[in-house]
Amino acid sequence: MLNPTISLLIGFAATAVISTPMNVEAATYDYSKAKNIPVRPIASNNILNLYGDLYQNEGYNVFSNVDPNAPDGGHFGIRINPIYTSYYAVGREANLNPSGATRSASVQNITGFSNLFNYLNRNNISPSSIGIGISPKSGRDVTKAWNLGEDILGQDWFSSPDSTIEEDIYRANPDDVEISLSYGTTKIIDLGYSPFYFISDNAGGVFANENWNIFLTHPTSPSKLSGLDPFSSGLADAFLKDVAAAGGSIQLVSEDQPEASDILPFANDKYQGFLLSFPIEIRAVKSVPEPSTGLGLLMLGALVTVSRKISQKQKQE
């Protein structure tokens, strides 16, 4: 039997639907403890705070092959207070265990996003009508979801016997998956593709609720989907206008200290795993180049400079 405490996204209680024009407080997790994943949360004053309650047919699935020796069987960690890490990660609407779910989480409150909030308010629409979906595209098998690839220590996940932390990188073929914003059951925004980066810190012990589960993505560029009715199109435009004003990108961030009540195990003849409640923020941000990208640009600039100097010297000769 799998250990019922895992390294992914165990939820917190939802908040009331309000708009709060306040500055975002810095995260309390110490990200200096994570040495391997390349992303960090970007501060924002424009945040959609969402929550997927597994008891309201929302949330998140993590699962693996029932055969632990299969390539997609997941792994048991090597860290202090080790726990089982599932191979796949996907939103509940992928219907791994069919339930008719249509989204992963719904908006609970809005910080900033003034155009979106005013559009909803003018039309007397609850923010909870907006949700996020994280799943394979229509017609793709559930195994096309985000996954641990070769599940290799030092490549797809990182840990050590003297640490309480495991860092996991879940990737997918961008053509097979989608992260979308929806109004009701209508998808209105493609939020773009990113790997999922997880930090699981069990410093409090395997079952303690002061442990951390962190979920991050790279900043991505959202775009409006085609074929929308006038109202949905206006809603999408309001969201994109707020994103553009904040820097042009969005980042998904979940910083959570788990509660055992937000996790349910499941198993069938193919897979075993967990259904989890899903706290998640959509932050409107300005994209920050990755260090490797910045270094590449610096090297390119240096090469161009050298090339120009050589060319000038040749002309002088």
UniProtKB/TrEMBL annotation:
<dbReference type="InterPro" id="IPR013424">
    <property type="entry name" value="Ice-binding_C"/>
</dbReference>
<feature type="signal peptide">
    <location>
        <begin position="1"/>
        <end position="26"/>
    </location>
</feature>
<dbReference type="Pfam" id="PF07589">
    <property type="entry name" value="PEP-CTERM"/>
</dbReference>
<feature type="domain" description="Ice-binding protein C-terminal">
    <location>
        <begin position="287"/>
        <end position="308"/>
    </location>
</feature>
<protein>
    <recommendedName>
        <fullName>Ice-binding protein C-terminal domain-containing protein</fullName>
    </recommendedName>
</protein>
<keyword id="KW-0732">Signal</keyword>
